């Protein structure tokens, strides 16, 4: 039997990880209830839910690629075939 095994349960240093999580910057965006969001912020300053959607392409190359792309979700714009 290996000598490095013992009867103590494995417990990583969760206290250090918890301290880092508590010190993280918070999102602060207004939620629907009016309270500031308490989610941890990403580098852009907002959480993953309030980070904002991707913006439309600005460069001519991106605009051309967007116009020629095939849109699979038209949102009910297609005519129904009866």
TrEMBL record:
Stretches the record annotates as Disordered: 48-82
InterPro entries in the record: Putative_zinc-bd
Name of this protein: HGGxSTG domain-containing protein
Species of origin: Methylobacterium brachiatum
């Amino acid at each position: 039997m290996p000598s490095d095994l013992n009867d103590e349960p494995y417990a990583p240093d969760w206290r250090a990880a918890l301290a880092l999580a508590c010190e993280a910057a918070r999102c602060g965006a207004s939620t629907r209830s009016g309270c500031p969001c308490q989610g941890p912020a990403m580098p852009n300053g907002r959480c993953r839910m309030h980070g904002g959607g991707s913006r439309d392409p600005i460069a001519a190359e991106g605009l051309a690629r967007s116009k020629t792309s095939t849109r699979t979700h038209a949102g009910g714009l297609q005519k129904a075939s009866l």
